[in-house]
């Protein structure tokens, strides 16, 4: 990643799970990193996340919906990783207006700031496979219709399409990657609002019972965070990705039960039980879902490199070592 040496990079949501892993990698690559993060209470932001590089990054604790502030922050930046957002599907149904603010207004403000101040900045967006909704066929490919089943999926889809529109209308370098269930160090693990992955990891480490909704046979394409960071970095340097959207995905799909069994094997503690879906989850459930990342691989050579077992081993070790900062 020599291309990032000496570059000035802004990460929105950089104290969160994926943003902080990206910030650490960029500092290691020799970039000058700035972060804007509001530490929104229902998100995964945590100042400890950037502990290894805390003296090397400039942090602005503020809301990226503030256009004047964003105009100042994007000036002179080579790259803007537009990651600030709200991950929770159930929360988006309870408070849809907050989800619009975090998943539409935030990303759009960053784009508009770049349009007004710095059209040369390369803007990389973290989209989601949730925009597809319930799949007609698997694996999901980028030509599959977008039919989100929850407010989060609708707003994240809009967030993505602002980026595509700003490329087509203003010629800006924008890319959207459609992430799948991502796991790894620095993820929020205290509750299920961010999805089941972090919560299951905490329960397995604590030796508690994990409840799997449905029958446990739903397939997912889990991505270790380092692979996602690689994909984000590539999107900022490979011209072929410009103006387009791409699926990410794990090496192969696993059932949610497989995921839990691997986790329990690693921690040597805890148990699981299959339980019926609670009503609030059932109405927005998408069944089995995993994505083909062939399009991104074809254009950029990106491929996930970390297996589920290897990624889980790093993750469990990280939380065991840093438990007090996450529990
Ligand atoms: N984690 C996943 O599995 C996953 C899957 C698909 C897409 N994504 C997307 O990746 C991005 C990062 O997700 P994450 O898992 O790191 O979540 P996270 O909650 O850990 O991080 C998001 C960060 O954004 C910040 N933030 C939110 N709104 C903000 C605002 N208006 N101004 C400033 N900061 C704000 C939060 O404080 C938080 O630190 C999100 O856009 C999410 O939709 C994540």
Structure, described:
The structure is a single chain. The chain is an alpha/beta fold and 327 residues long. It has a domain of 227 residues: NAD(P)-binding Rossmann-like Domain (Rossmann fold, 3-Layer(aba) Sandwich), CATH 3.40.50. The protein has eleven helices and 13 strands. The strands form four sheets. It has a seven-stranded parallel β-sheet with strand order 3-2-1-4-5-6-11, with helices on both faces. Helix 1 links the parallel strand 1 and strand 2. It is globular and about 55 Å long.
Short description:
The protein contains eleven helices and 13 strands.
Keywords:
327 residues, alpha/beta, Rossmann fold, seven-stranded parallel sheet, 39% helix, binds nicotinamide-adenine-dinucleotide
**Distance from first to last alpha carbon:** 34 Å
Strand content: 15-25%
By CATH, the superfamily of the domain at 2-184 and 222-250 and 292-306 comes out as NAD(P)-binding Rossmann-like Domain
How much helix is in the residues? 25-40%
- As for the CATH topology of the domain at 2-184 and 222-250 and 292-306, it is Rossmann fold
How many strands appear in the DSSP assignment? 13
The appropriate CATH architecture of the domain at 2-184 and 222-250 and 292-306 is 3-Layer(aba) Sandwich
């Amino acid at each position: 990643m020599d291309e990032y040496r000496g570059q000035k990079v802004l990460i929105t949501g950089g104290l969160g799970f994926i943003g902080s892993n990206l910030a650490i990698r960029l500092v290691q690559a020799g970039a000058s990193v700035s972060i804007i993060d509001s530490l929104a209470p229902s998100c995964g932001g945590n100042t400890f996340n950037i502990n290894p590089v805390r003296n090397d990054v400039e942090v602005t604790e503020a809301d990226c919906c503030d256009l004047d502030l964003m105009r100042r922050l994007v000036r002179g930046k080579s790259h803007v990783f537009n990651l600030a957002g709200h991950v929770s599907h159930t929360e988006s149904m309870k408070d849809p207006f907050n989800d619009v603010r975090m998943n539409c207004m935030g990303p759009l403000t960053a784009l508009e700031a770049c349009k007004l101040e710095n059209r040369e900045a390369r803007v990389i967006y973290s989209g989601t496979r949730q925009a597809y909704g319930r799949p007609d066929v698997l694996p999901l490919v980028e030509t599959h219709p977008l039919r989100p089943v929850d407010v989060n999926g609708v707003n994240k889809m809009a967030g993505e399409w602002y980026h595509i529109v700003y490329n087509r209308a203003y010629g800006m370098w924008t890319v959207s990657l459609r992430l799948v269930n991502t796991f790894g160090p620095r993820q929020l693990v205290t509750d299920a609002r961010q999805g089941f992955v972090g919560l299951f990891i905490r329960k397995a480490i604590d030796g508690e019972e994990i409840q799997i909704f449905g029958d446990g046979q739903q397939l997912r394409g889990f991505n270790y965070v380092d692979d996602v960071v690689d994909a984000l970095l590539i999107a900022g340097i490979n011209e072929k990705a410009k103006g387009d959207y791409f699926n990410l995905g794990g090496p192969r799909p696993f059932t949610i039960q497989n995921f839990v069994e691997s986790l329990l094997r690693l921690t040597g503690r805890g148990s699981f039980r299959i339980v019926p879906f609670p009503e609030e989850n059932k109405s927005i459930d998408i069944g089995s879902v995993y994505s083909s990342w062939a399009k991104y691989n074809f254009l950029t050579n990106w491929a996930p490199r970390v297996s589920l077992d290897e990624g889980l081993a790093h993750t469990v070790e990280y939380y065991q070592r840093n438990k007090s900062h996450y529990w």
